[in-house]
Specification:
Distance between the termini of chain B: 48 Å
Strand order of the largest sheet of chain B: 2-1-5-3-4
Structural class of chain A: alpha+beta
Number of domains of chain B: 2
Strand order of the largest sheet of chain A: 4-5-8-6-7
CATH class of the largest domain in chain A: Alpha Beta
CATH topology of the largest domain in chain B: Ubiquitin-like (UB roll)
Strand content of chain A: 15-25%
CATH class of the largest domain in chain B: Alpha Beta
Oligomer: heterodimer
Largest sheet of chain B: 5 strands, mixed
Helix content of chain A: 25-40%
Strand content of chain B: 15-25%
CATH architecture of the largest domain in chain B: Roll
Largest interface: A-B, 27 and 28 residues
Helix content of chain B: 25-40%
CATH topology of the largest domain in chain A: Uridine Diphospho-n-acetylenolpyruvylglucosamine Reductase, domain 3
Number of helices of chain B: 5
Radius of gyration of chain B: 16 Å
Number of strands of chain A: 12
Number of helices of chain A: 11
Shape of chain A: globular
Radius of gyration of chain A: 18 Å
Order of helices and strands of chain A: EHEHEEEHHHHHHEEHEEEEEHH
Shape of chain B: globular
Chain lengths: 267, 162
């Protein structure tokens, strides 16, 4: 790892000012992606601004219709929260499948979303549930937040503060993890919202990162059963292809994971 | 350079570190606690697992500066004098190792796992929970047996204490 200057700000304002005065600053949350990337010298920020302990980014709040999670809340905290388990169990189950126990103790929801890895788990839930992302500057809809591989609407210096998920009537996440990395080869989050809308978020598979599978949503709208997806196929054209799987393989995997998620959501 | 203060295995320690110094390097090179191993150095193998504020983390993927003010427990801090921790004793008893390189991380992960599950573990849970710890020798069989035995013993100790 190249040299870097570590900073631990006491609040969001100081974090933003440290970032602004750095030659090439990066925010550090759990560091589960950024630190390995720096160790490989694929990233070499002059300054790291540690957001991990900021109180403003902590906390879980559950109301009758919303689950709000601070950006620096860890995957283990989401997985283990009895409040989230009761209100939105699909989300705590998703968090419990990220990485391994040690990674879940450090990695944060905000770090995962700001990184927008195309194979990360949280983006599928955020997009499927139509969550709202609150930053130091504004509120963003999930649709506007994700902008392709490792790209989000966050501006230079802007900090993700919290994520609010509407509580659906039914939801489930099904993931086929890469056997080595545990990242999603395909992960599908299916949700039926309180107004009856069915929404399907897909991660790990699409060339442009997380996306909604509109054909699945239409088929599931009046019929939330795995069989409703039987006649459908996913076009391999938009799928990722790499040494772990071809585009056709991933296209099929999206359907298989979607059926598993629907079965779990409707069961 | 940044000054960090860390309580390691019950002893308050301070050190001057670079911003890029990893916790595992501070433990090994700064404090001489070489029981914590660096295996893959890519956040995958778990040989470097220690507890930071009571939670198992990969110390090769945490900056020393991030641990400022924290309480750290390493493999050296687990035994009480000559009396091995139940997990250490079980790894000995069930020979949960061959070359031993992954063992410190395995044991620290096992202690964390047993605590999180209130010493109620079955084989499937143990195997799933070991996702972040890689052993290239044993095939895991005796590691799983050792953790199961330690968990059962610790459950018994808890009952006896109640």
């Amino acid at each position: 790892m190249y040299e870097t200057n570590y900073h631990r700000p006491k609040d969001l304002a100081e974090a933003q000012s440290l970032f602004a005065s750095a030659a090439e600053g990066r925010y550090l949350a759990g560091g589960m992606t950024l630190l390995p990337t720096m160790k490989q010298r694929l990233a070499a920020p002059s300054d790291l601004v540690d957001l991990g302990r900021l109180e403003a980014l902590k906390g879980i709040a559950v109301t009758t219709d919303t689950v709000t999670i601070g950006a620096a809340v860890t995957h283990a905290e989401v997985a283990g929260s009895s409040e989230i388990q009761a209100a939105l169990p699909a989300l705590s189950a998703l968090a419990g499948q990220i990485g391994d126990p040690h990674v879940r103790h450090r990695g944060t929801i905000g770090g995962s979303l700001a990184n927008n890895d195309p194979a990360a788990d949280y983006p599928a839930a955020v997009l499927a549930l139509g969550a709202t992302l609150r930053t130091t500057q504004r509120e963003l809809a999930a649709e506007d937040f994700f902008q392709g591989l490792f790209t989000t609407a966050l501006e230079e210096g802007e900090i993700l503060v919290s994520v609010s998920f509407p509580i659906p009537s039914r939801a489930a996440y099904a993931k086929f993890p890469n056997p080595a990395s545990r990242y999603a080869m395909a992960g599908v989050f299916v949700a039926r919202m309180q107004d009856g809308d069915v929404r399907v978020g897909v991660t790990g598979a699409g060339q442009d990162g997380v996306y909604r599978e509109a054909s699945f949503e239409a088929a599931l709208a009046g019929n939330l059963t795995p069989a409703a997806l039987d006649p459908l196929t996913v076009d391999p054209d938009g799928m990722l292809a790499d040494l772990h799987g071809s585009a056709a393989y991933r296209a099929n995997l999206v359907k298989v994971m979607a059926k598993r998620a629907v079965a779990a959501a409707s069961g | 350079m940044t000054s960090v203060s860390i309580t390691v295995n019950g002893t308050a320690r301070t050190a001057e570190v670079e911003g890029r110094t990893l916790l595992v390097n501070l433990l090994r090179e700064g404090f001489g606690l070489t029981g914590t191993h660096i295996g893959c150095d890519t956040s995958q193998c778990g040989a470097c697992v220690v507890h930071v504020d009571g939670k198992a983390v990969k110390s090769c993927t945490m900056l020393a500066a991030q641990a400022d003010g924290a309480t750290v427990l390493t493999i050296e801090g687990l035994a009480h004098g000559d009396e091995l921790h139940p997990v250490q004793a079980a790894f000995h008893e069930h020979h949960g190792l061959q070359c031993g390189f992954c063992t410190p991380g395995m044991i620290m992960a096992a202690v964390d796992m047993i605590e999180r599950h209130d010493a109620q573990l079955d084989e499937a849970t143990i195997r799933h929970e070991l996702e972040g710890n890689i052993c290239r020798c044993t095939g895991y069989h005796n590691i799983v047996k050792a953790i199961q035995a330690a968990s059962d013993r610790m459950a018994g100790l808890r009952q006896a204490a109640e």
